[in-house]
Structure formats: structure tokens, C-alpha cells
Amino acid sequence: MTPRPALRAWVTARWPLTETIRTVAFIARCTGAAVAALVIAQQWHLNHPVWASVSALVVSQDQLGDTNRSLAWRIAGTMIGVGVAILVALVMTGASAVAMLAVAVGITSAIARLRSELRLCMWTAVIVLLTVPAGGSVLSAALDRAQEVLLGVAVGAVLHWGADRLLFRRKEQPEAVTASASP
């Protein structure tokens, strides 16, 4: 069944082709990034592949410039959160998980208050501290979470850069040099 001409004209007048392409590209990129990051993380036998998939989605933005900014802040926030979790665990050896969590959130929320783009460091510190397996170490959990997040953001960014290059960046045509223009 094809749409009626009046309906098609109404939709295309309000939803240009470029916007349709961008919408479909965004949906495909997000889906592809989440699935690819999960599959790669599972193949690499990472402990919590869900964080790779989530990170691929967090970094995926509508515009390439926004994705680049999200990528930079995601990496910075992850590294700060990992660092704070490790530091807190080293300084507070033997403390309860609740006490370590309270100190880590206090430190990272102060950082996030100074630069809101870094608020992800709060989540990362909490995730690191709460995903330490029985008999495991915070350092091991921190390295695992960092791997998962970095894999996810890399997959999300690569898919966006590739889609943007393929769909929206036209190669510039070299200008024709005419014989009359040469000296």
C-alpha cells in the first residue's frame, strides 16, 4: 500500500530527505554500535560487556562534532572515576564498601560540580567500587571497567565517523585548471 499523494506531500514538506537520512543513519549507528560493542566485549571475554554496549550508546550523538565532544568527555570522566576509585580503595584499605562509596562520590561530585561534562566520573567510581567480585581487587575491577568503556566509546565513535564520512561528507572536486588561468 502506497501513501496517498496528499499525505506524501505533507510529510515530505515537513520532513526533508536530509532529515530522513540523518534519522535512519542515527538509528543504524546506535543499533550497530551497541550490538558491535557487546559482541566484541563478549568475544574478548570482558567481565561486564554491558558497559561496552552502554558506552557505545552514550557517546553516540546526532552530530559528529557532538560525538567528538562526548567521546573526549566520556574518556576523561572514565579515567577520573577509575583513578578516584583506585585512590579511595588504596587509602581506605579495610573500610566498608559504603564508606568507600561515600568518599568516592564526594570527590567525584566535587569534580563534576567544577566541570559538568565530567559528571560521568561519579558513575564510573561507583560502578568500579560496586563491581569488585568476591576475592577480587578494585584495581582489577577498575581496569576491567576502563577496558569495557573504552571499547564501547571507540566502537561508537568509529561507526559515527564512518557513517558521517560515507553519507554526509562529499569529497571536494578539484577545480579545473584552465590554460588561460596559468601564467
Largest sheet: none
Chain-averaged pLDDT: 86
Number of H- or I-type helical stretches:
7
The tally of structural domains comes to: 1
Distance between the termini: 62 Å
What coarse outline follows from CA principal-axis ratios?
elongated
Q: Report Rg.
A: 23 Å
Broad structural category? mainly alpha
Percentage of helical residues?
over 70%
- What is the percentage of strand-forming residues? under 5%
Q: H/E series, N to C?
A: HHHHHHH
Residue runs with pLDDT of under 50 for 5 or more positions: none
InterPro entries: PHBA_efflux_AaeB/fusaric-R
Protein name: Putative membrane protein YccC
Transmembrane segments: 21-41, 75-108, 120-143, 149-168
GO cellular component, one term: membrane
Describe it:
By secondary structure, the chain is mainly α. It has helices spanning 5-14, 17-43, 50-59, 64-91, 97-114, 120-130, 138-167. The protein has one domain. Helix 2 packs antiparallel against helix 3 (50-59), helix 2 (17-43) packs antiparallel against helix 7 (138-167) and helix 5 (97-114) runs antiparallel to helix 6 (120-130). It starts with a helix and ends in a 16-residue tail after the last helix. The mean pLDDT is 86.
